[in-house]
Amino acid sequence: MINKKIIYRAGSGRGKEENCDNHQAEYAENDIYVITPIKKHPTFNKYLVWVDPDFGLYHIRAIQTNIKTNDSGTEAKAAFYSFEARLEKIYGKPDIVDGMINNYTIFEEDYYWLYALQNGFRQLSAVWDPFIPDVNLKENLMTIALWVDYWDYKSTVLFLDYYFTNSSDVENTEDDVL
């Protein structure tokens, strides 16, 4: 752990510097820190933040690891759709992808759900962005994404990503070196 305060006000460059819940932010890599936020949701057990020294906080990821599920993904789908419904009440109806992303695969049957997810043939995700009709994002939010991925044998992980408007500024700065 490092004794570094992070900028928590999103999307507006320099913000107020504070520690999260009197815990120190643990530097992971590049702009990524592992944090324990003051306000946590019981669904998630790990939080990552991306903080740029010039633009401030530009991305938050909440993670729920180790969702035990069967081969058909019953529990993973239930966790996803339960949380998606809660977000839909706040932000509006998202664009949902729930199905095979490769039409030529032999793993379309329901009992191959987890295997297809593990091997990139299947996707379960919801995206809220301002270009989707009836989506109402709060100030400084650019995109919200909720998605499920394979974790390990009979387990999945649920991710919730918040991208702030200044994330495009960070990308432009990174692209300047290309």
What does this structure look like?
This protein is α+β, with helices and mostly antiparallel strands and 178 residues long. It has three helices and ten strands. The protein has helices spanning 74-91, 113-118, 167-175; strands at residues 6-7, 17-18, 26-29, 32-35, 46-52, 56-68, 95-100, 122-128, 141-152, 155-164. Strands 3-4-5-6-10-9-8-7 form an eight-stranded antiparallel sheet, with helices on both faces. A two-stranded antiparallel ribbon has the order 1-2. Strand 9 and strand 10 (155-164) form a beta hairpin. The longest helix is centred in the middle third of the chain and has 18 residues, at 74-91. Residues 1-21 have low confidence and may be disordered.
Provide keyphrases for this structure:
eight-stranded antiparallel β-sheet; disordered N terminus; alpha+beta; 178 residues; single chain; two-stranded antiparallel sheet
Strand order of the largest sheet: 3-4-5-6-10-9-8-7
How would you spell out the order of helices and strands?
EEEEEEHEHEEEH
* Estimated structural class: alpha+beta
* Strand content range: 35-45%
Largest sheet: 8 strands, antiparallel
Number of strands: 10
Low-confidence sequence ranges:
1-21
The rough form would be described as: globular
The radius of gyration over CA amounts to 18 Å
Task: Describe how the helices and strands are arranged.
Blueprint: E1 6-7, E2 17-18, E3 26-29, E4 32-35, E5 46-52, E6 56-68, H1 74-91, E7 95-100, H2 113-118, E8 122-128, E9 141-152, E10 155-164, H3 167-175
Antiparallel strand pairs: 1-2, 3-4, 4-5, 5-6, 6-10, 7-8, 8-9, 9-10
